[in-house]
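TA notes, week 10

Several of you asked for a full example with nothing omitted. So below is the full record: structure tokens for the whole chain, then the designed sequence directly under it. When grading your own attempts, check the secondary structure regions first.
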């Protein structure tokens, strides 16, 4: 039976970062297991074009099967790099108060890892002349509340966690990558793990790190029988939002075409932060932003960034290929309806501002006659930022060890106990950077 010092189950945003850091020690053997494909070092030229192209979400390929194919909020990538390989490349950290997670966790303690992760992702802020006329108008309308996005785009390539962390480690003889290999469950014996069942075989390990993401990791732990004593899969939370669409004016179409010819188009460029009437101190509980899909309609969206509603991830079957039962619980807590309705009003206000108004002829979706609350209730969806299904403090101790198991860790978005008021990739990778020092 193959044996490793560390076995990492899942090569996503966090798993790749862990594999890169943990294999820096040449005396430690590391095996990285990924259900999806690995296309090798970027320089080999084998990565699919949609995964490399950072301008749009890559949601047409490399997706996990969903139990409800219509539920886009469940979308997640099955490929080395995980969701960092198909995401919008926005690199934002949360507010300091987002990181008060109990013993040993604070912004002060976490900030060095956020910085290290941002640097390793080769993050830079989009240059002013890269902003499309549509994004620029929102930035100007949002004034001091506008955030021009820091992004992990390098030379026109989505710089996912595999390129940032695994490529520099590929030459190391102590790193093994098992792609196209599904992790079923971890092997447990007397309060310890001894390895895992992956594909058709068992692998032995001194330490196992589960890094299957906020949906995949609870799946692995539940198949391992850990749901009986711990609230594995409970507490799922994602930012919740909705969108609007407008008829673009001739000036917007003409200016966007001219901008595209010179600079290309990128969807994620600007966010306007906002605070609802019930916003807790120290954070912005709303993000409002212009999207970029200029056609018969141009759109924007609003998201509640500190939602109260919680859902769950459960097993439908013991078969590791069976889709998981994912219930986001969006708007289960009425407070989220109120906050999001305020966000949607803010989006409409921005669209009606002096800066944006010249670009929109009229609201097509939902239409000016539809009130914000009704629209929110009818269309709420996720932001692709699920967290907290194996949370620190509930399922894990403060060092990401499964409670009761000294050599079994969960390190990925599922470990994040409270959703940060920002996109989650940077926080997840920073968590991996920190946990790598403990493993
Ligand atoms: C469409 C989309 C757009 C996004 N845009 C942004 C953005 O612009 N900015 C931002 O900050 N965040 C964004 N996010 C969120 C961000 O990408 C995630 O927070 C981050 O990728 C989470 O990392 P993770 O390691 O927890 O999980 P993932 O990155 O999902 O990685 C989990 C990995 O484990 C593998 N896996 C799961 N189960 C198994 C198993 N049983 N056996 C083997 N392998 C398994 C998966 O295939 C995957 O590769 C976006 C997410 C999506 C889906």
């Amino acid at each position: 039976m193959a044996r490793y010092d560390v076995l990492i189950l899942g090569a996503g945003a966090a798993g790749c970062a862990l594999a890169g850091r943990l294999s820096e020690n040449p005396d430690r053997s590391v095996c990285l297991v990924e259900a999806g494909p690995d296309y090798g070092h970027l320089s080999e030229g084998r990565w699919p074009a949609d995964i490399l192209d950072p301008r749009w979400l890559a949601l047409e390929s490399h997706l996990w099967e969903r139990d409800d194919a219509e539920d886009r909020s469940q979308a997640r990538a099955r490929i080395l790099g995980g969701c960092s390989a198909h995401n919008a490349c926005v690199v934002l950290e949360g507010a300091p108060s987002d990181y008060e997670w109990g013993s040993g966790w604070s912004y002060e303690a976490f900030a060095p890892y956020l910085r290290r992760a941002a640097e390793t992702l080769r993050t830079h802020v989009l240059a002013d002349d890269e902003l499309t006329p549509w994004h620029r108008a929102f930035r100007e309308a949002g004034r001091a509340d506008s955030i021009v996005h820091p992004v992990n785009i390098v030379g026109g390539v989505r710089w996912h966690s595999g390129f940032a962390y695994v490529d520099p480690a590929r030459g190391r003889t102590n790193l093994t990558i098992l792609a196209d290999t599904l992790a079923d469950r971890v092997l447990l014996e007397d309060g310890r793990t001894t390895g895992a069942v992956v594909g058709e075989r068992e692998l032995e390990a001194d330490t196992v790190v589960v890094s299957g993401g906020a949906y995949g990791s609870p799946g692995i732990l539940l198949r391992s029988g850990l749901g009986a004593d711990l609230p594995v899969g409970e507490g799922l939370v994602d930012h919740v939002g909705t969108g609007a669409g407008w008829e673009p004016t001739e000036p917007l179409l003409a200016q966007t075409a001219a901008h595209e010819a010179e600079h290309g188009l990128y969807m994620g460029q600007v966010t306007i932060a906002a605070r609802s009437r019930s916003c807790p101190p120290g954070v912005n509980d709303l993000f409002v932003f212009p999207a970029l899909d200029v056609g018969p309609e141009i759109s924007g969206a609003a998201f509640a960034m500190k939602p109260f509603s919680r859902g769950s991830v459960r097993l439908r079957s013991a078969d590791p290929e069976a889709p998981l039962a994912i219930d986001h619980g969006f708007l289960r807590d009425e407070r989220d309806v109120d906050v999001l309705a305020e966000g949607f009003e803010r989006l409409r206000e921005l669209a009606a501002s002096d800066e944006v108004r010249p670009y929109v002829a009229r609201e097509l979706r939902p239409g000016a006659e539809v009130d914000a609350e009704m629209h929110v209730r009818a269309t709420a969806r996720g932001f692709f930022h699920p967290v907290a299904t194996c949370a620190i403090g509930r399922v894990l101790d403060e060092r990401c060890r499964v409670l009761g198991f000294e050599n079994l860790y969960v390190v990925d978005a599922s470990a994040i106990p409270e959703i940060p008021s920002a996109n989650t990739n940077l926080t997840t990778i920073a968590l991996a950077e920190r946990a790598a020092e403990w493993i």
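The chain has ten helices and 21 strands. Use that as a sanity check on your answer.
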